Amino acid sequence: MIRRLKRLLPVMILAYAGMYPYLASILYRKISQHGLTTQADYPYFDMHRDARSLILQISEQTDRMLCDPREIFPLKFTVTNHSDSSLSSGTEERPGKGAPVNIAYRLFLPDGSLLTESRRTFFSPPALHGQYLAPENSREVTLLVTCPEPGEYQLEAEAVQEGVAWQSDITGRELSIRIRIHARNPEESDPDRSESL
Q1: Helix (H, G, I), strand (E, B) or coil at 92
Q2: Sequence-separated (6 or more) residues with CB below 8 Å from residue 119
Q3: Could you tell me which residues are beta bridge partners of residue 133?
Q4: pLDDT of residue 158
Q5: Chain centre to alpha carbon of residue 162
Q6: What is the DSSP letter of 152?
Q7: Going by C-beta distance under 8 Å and a sequence separation of 6 or more, which residues neighbour residue 107?
Q8: Model confidence at 106: pLDDT above 90
Q9: What whole-number percentage of the chain has pLDDT above 70?
Q10: Rg of the chain's alpha carbons, rounded to an integer?
Q11: Residue 189 and residue 25: Cα distance in Å, rounded?
Q12: Using CA atoms, how far apart are residues 45 and 85, in angstroms rounded to an integer?
């Protein structure tokens, strides 16, 4: 039995090694389905040049949200890269690839002054972190919004290239997702958390 296993061992090793290209091709196809690529065949994304080519679309269109203070609710978006460049998200700049591009929101008071900006949301899932969103590909992202203290606010969600610019700094606010937030007082009660104006 042991001799037979010794004879089969080289065959098993060769068969296992032969699976690597097959497994690699499956992994690459899975990555491509997400609109992500490991290829460095594209110029890196530059917000000053490519801002108008990066489009955010909200999954469920709404102009106004009702929420309770400190409540956390999700906003789902699709990010589409119509530029000729690849872009990646994350926290660190990669040599030769430009600064990372992330998704975030800012909350403004009724007078237009900035109240706060959110933590960054990456469009690359952890398993594919460091990959690139290739031209003419899309990726779904979910922003987790923390409802502020009672009052009226304007939420603006958009892309930001770290250390370079927010998308609206280049395009104005035409490409931002803008939603009015009404943070309710504790005595208010309304089962409908969102409505269209």
Answers
A1: coil
A2: 104
A3: 36, 87
A4: 92
A5: 14
A6: E
A7: 114, 115, 116, 117, 148, 153, 154, 155, 181
A8: yes
A9: 66
A10: 23
A11: 54
A12: 5
Interstrand relation of 194-195 and 64-67 (parallel, antiparallel or unpaired)? antiparallel
| 21 contact partners, CB below 8 Å, separation of at least 6 | none
CA separation for the pair 82, 127 (Å, rounded): 24
The total of other beta-carbon atoms located within 10 Å of residue 111's CB is: 5
Q: Hunting for tokens 């610019």 — which residue is that? A: 165
pLDDT in tens, 140-194: 889 999 999 999 999 999 999 998 999 999 998 777 888 999 988 877 655 554 4
The band of 96, judged by pLDDT with boundaries at 50, 70 and 90, is: low
Instruction: Give CA–CA dist 187/96, Å, rounded.
Output: 54
User: Which residues pair with residue 114 across a beta bridge?
Assistant: 108
